[in-house]
Amino acid sequence: MGSREQLIERSILFLREVKDMTPSAAMERWLNETYGEDSALYQDLARLIKMGVEEGWAANQEVEGPNYRRSRILEPVPETFQFSITAVYMNSTDPRRIKDEDDHDVLRGQYHGHPYGELNLVVPLDKGAQLKGLQGWQGPGWTAPDPGSRHYPEVRGGAVIALFFLPAGRISYDFKAPA
């Protein structure tokens, strides 16, 4: 079994456990307490998604250059309880970076919304790299944006892979970004 199939298999075991939970700040806390960076689940998924990027089957489609890439690994199917699995690679060393409120270099991705929320595994590739979640900056661990939430994905401190699970595969880029 290849690394892609292993990632899907490991994800199904996780999704079986969380399939009836609603993404939220409370779920994000639970995920980080239960499946934080020292857990077997986090370690397995992080290892497999890193392999996916290295092997070229994950986060392999440029969105806005080589430092902002994503790919859908699996569409929603009954085996994943209708969650899709997607990977995003973002690196804040991109020439298009901006400064955040703390004067850190930040790469900002495409504004989008989560009709049903999102479960997002954050895997820093560089020490200190973080993804901005709705509860603040997150290093190794999880974010869980609420249903109906909208945001720019942002990274700082280097490169991050985000492995995310979308209920019903729903994500929308049809929202106008705030001015």
Automatic annotation (TrEMBL):
InterPro entries in the record, alphabetically?
PnbB (IPR032345)
Query: Any idea what this protein is called?
Result: DUF4863 family protein
Lineage summary: Bacteria, Pseudomonadati, Pseudomonadota, Alphaproteobacteria, Hyphomicrobiales
